[in-house]
Write a structure and sequence with these properties.
It is a single chain. With 198 residues, this protein is of the alpha+beta class. It has 2 domains: 56 residues; 113 residues, Uridine Diphospho-n-acetylenolpyruvylglucosamine Reductase, domain 3 (2-Layer Sandwich). Helix content is 17%, strand content 26%. A 5-stranded antiparallel beta sheet has the order 5-6-10-8-9. It has a 4-stranded mixed beta sheet with strand order 1-2-4-3. The protein is globular, with a radius of gyration of 21 Å.
Length: 198
């Protein structure tokens, strides 16, 4: 389907033949075509990533596959957005290990851009918390990779901007929280000035 696409900065805006999939077999059918394409998430990248004449949207591939609320392990399809994840995990006492500037990005986009947050100096980037993920290669073959299995593919895909294949499934660790509220102490300082008369 032809449509106008852009990212967060709304520049450039280009026309793209965008396809989408909701099931693995639909993705394999798209990959069997003799076309060049780039996978695309929710279009919140700051630059011109995932803008091409042919794109494959992951937004309909958005199911939660597993959530261990005791151990804090979460697994989902790559089109699920971070805000959708937060709706599920925060009431159970968990939070994302790394939170970028927007919660409206997909998990696949978080991996492909290897996003980081304000806690980067302590927690690192998103890929530091991935236990395993599935990449669908251009051939249609699905490969489950991790820091210990097919590690070259894993490392190339974290921050690989979708160029190694389509990230289809991600399993990662969460961060334990006590509450979704914060304790705030507000201090107001007054600056006293006086006018000296001579």
């Amino acid at each position: 389907m032809k449509k106008q696409i852009a990212n967060w900065g709304n520049y450039p805006v280009i026309e793209s033949n965008e396809e989408s999939f909701a099931f693995p077999e639909q993705l394999r059918e798209l990959l069997s075509r003799d076309e060049n394409f780039i996978p695309r998430g929710n279009g919140r990248c700051y630059g011109d990533a995932s803008l091409a004449r042919n794109t494959i949207s992951t937004l309909k591939f958005d199911k939660i596959l597993y959530f261990d609320a005791t151990a804090g392990i979460f697994e989902c399809q790559s089109g699920l957005t971070l805000d959708q994840i937060l709706e599920v995990i925060v009431p159970a006492g968990w939070f994302l290990p790394v939170t970028p500037g927007t919660k409206f990005i997909t998990v696949g986009g978080a991996v492909a851009s290897d996003v980081h947050g304000k806690n980067h100096h302590i927690e690192g980037s998103f890929s530091n918390h991935i236990l395993e993920m599935e990449i669908v290669l251009a051939s249609g073959q699905s490969v489950t990779c991790s820091p210990d299995s097919y590690s070259d593919l894993f490392e190339a895909s974290c921050g690989g901007m979708g160029l190694t294949g389509i990230i289809s499934r991600v399993k990662f660790r969460l961060k334990k929280i006590e509450t979704s509220y914060i304790r705030q102490k507000r201090m107001v300082h007054f600056l006293l000035t006086s006018t000296l008369k001579r």
